[in-house]
Design a protein that fits this description.
Layout: E1 6-10, H1 14-25, E2 28-34, E3 38-45, E4 48-57, E5 73-77, H2 80-89, E6 98-102, E7 105-114, E8 120-125
Parallel strand pairs: 1-4, 5-8
Antiparallel strand pairs: 2-3, 3-4, 6-7, 7-8
Length: 131
Amino acid sequence: MAKMIHSMIRVLDEARSVEFYGKVFGLEVADRIDFDTFTLIYLSNSETGFELELTVNKGRVEPYNLGDGYGHLAVSVDEVAVEHKRLTEAGLNPGKLTELNRDGKLLALFFFITDPDGYKIEVLQRHGRYL
């Protein structure tokens, strides 16, 4: 069986992105591999073996066009309302806390937050299939 190990996004500013993902999701640099024209930074935490790979293309100054094909990354947390409050108080402007129901039952409680490069990240309450 295949095992999902990471997802990659392109970012303009390594320090800004590492700070954002550390502050918001507790991710830390697990590895950093520097090449002549680009750098790969792998972020992770103790919750999962899955990593976020940040790719920084050296010399790039224009923001990336995310187009209309990018969906989102998703993370789950124990208390989504607590995280929403924490991020709001930190001035990081999370989207509204949303409840999604199906057949009269809670399917998901979540909000989205946008990283410095415009990527959307869904933050879900650990519940049901979103453990």
